[in-house]
């Protein structure tokens, strides 16, 4: 328990230190936005070793409900190392709706991805962590209304931790509520990355309602702080995040 608390403190101190040093190093231009993030997640286990990953996302652009900024369709095949750890190999199709440098067209991204995910229990409390590596192929932009030939490319490494504290003594049971703490940091690297090796940090506080043994709803407040490619331009997004999670284990069904 002490190691877990120490880890969280060190992680948050590192993130805070980075933001402070960035502020001192250069004059920032920060765009502030309010958005809604909707997401659906499905993890289905077919056998002791194999399963499927799927998630869908839709995000608004500004003023909570004004236009859309991005949609994502992400799929993957999962190999279960054991009941607590798994490796997923997948692909994501991302649509960036008209933005500042492409006001009249959508910009598409193709993202192959690989992820190592593991779960840890501390009594009734639970922690999930993952490392995800993405290869981002993003369509080049010629002007506001025209795509250029080819794609820009960079790697992205993401580390995510999610911590759940149940309100009830029974823990993670149907119709139970929990408190959720979640943080995810994104790091860019590759030949085409010059100024923004740090990409973004997503910090979330919210509630989880366990609908059934296999389904739950998580909702709350998220702050996203992102450094753009120019280096001195940033986005600070305050978002209402609503995610639905479905976890299906078909092993017993298949045996029957």
Task: Describe the 3D structure.
By secondary structure, the protein is mostly beta strands. It has one domain: Porin (Beta Barrel), CATH 2.40.160. It contains two helices and eleven strands; from the N terminus they run H-E-E-E-E-E-E-E-E-E-E-E-H. The chain has helices spanning 2-25, 251-255; strands spanning 29-45, 50-62, 66-80, 85-96, 107-122, 125-143, 146-166, 177-189, 198-210, 215-227, 233-249. An eleven-stranded mixed β-barrel has the order 1-2-3-4-5-6-7-8-9-10-11. The longest helix has 24 residues, at 2-25. The protein is globular and about 55 Å long. The model is unreliable at 20-25 (pLDDT under 50).
Q: What are the main properties of this structure?
A:
single chain; 256 residues; mainly beta; Porin; eleven-stranded mixed barrel; 11 strands
Number of strands: 11
- How many domains make up the coordinates? 1
Sequence of strands across the biggest β-sheet: 1-2-3-4-5-6-7-8-9-10-11
Distance between the termini: 40 Å
What does the radius of gyration come to? 19 Å
What characterizes the major β-sheet?
11 strands, mixed, barrel
* Unreliable sequence segments: 20-25
Coarse shape: globular
CATH class identity: Mainly Beta
Secondary-structure element pattern, one letter each: HEEEEEEEEEEEH
Strand content: over 45%
* Overall mean pLDDT: 90
């Amino acid at each position: 328990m002490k190691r877990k608390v120490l880890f969280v403190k060190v992680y948050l101190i590192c993130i805070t230190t980075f933001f402070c040093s960035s502020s001192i190093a250069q004059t920032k231009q920060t765009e502030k936005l309010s958005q809604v993030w909707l997401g659906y997640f499905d993890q289905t286990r077919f056998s002791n070793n194999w399963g499927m990953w799927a998630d869908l996302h839709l995000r608004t652009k500004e003023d909570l409900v004004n236009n859309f900024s991005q949609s994502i369709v992400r799929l993957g095949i999962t190999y279960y190392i054991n009941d607590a750890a798994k490796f997923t190999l997948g692909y994501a199709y991302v649509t960036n709706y008209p933005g500042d440098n492409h006001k009249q067209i959508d910009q598409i991204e193709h993202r192959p991805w690989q992820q190592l995910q593991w779960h840890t229990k501390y009594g009734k409390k639970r922690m999930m962590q993952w490392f995800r590596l993405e290869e981002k192929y993003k369509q080049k932009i010629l002007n506001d209304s025209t795509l250029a030939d080819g794609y820009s490319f960079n790697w992205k490494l993401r580390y995510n931790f999610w911590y759940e504290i149940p309100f009830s003594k029974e823990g993670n049971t149907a119709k139970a509520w929990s408190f959720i703490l979640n943080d995810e940091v994104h790091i860019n690297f590759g030949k085409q990355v010059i100024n923004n090796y740090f990409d973004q940090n997503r910090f979330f506080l919210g509630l989880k309602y366990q609908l059934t043994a296999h389904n739950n709803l998580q909702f709350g407040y998220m702050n996203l702080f992102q450094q753009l490619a120019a280096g001195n331009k940033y986005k600070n997004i305050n978002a209402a995040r609503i995610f639905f999670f479905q976890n299906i284990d078909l092993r017993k069904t298949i045996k029957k």
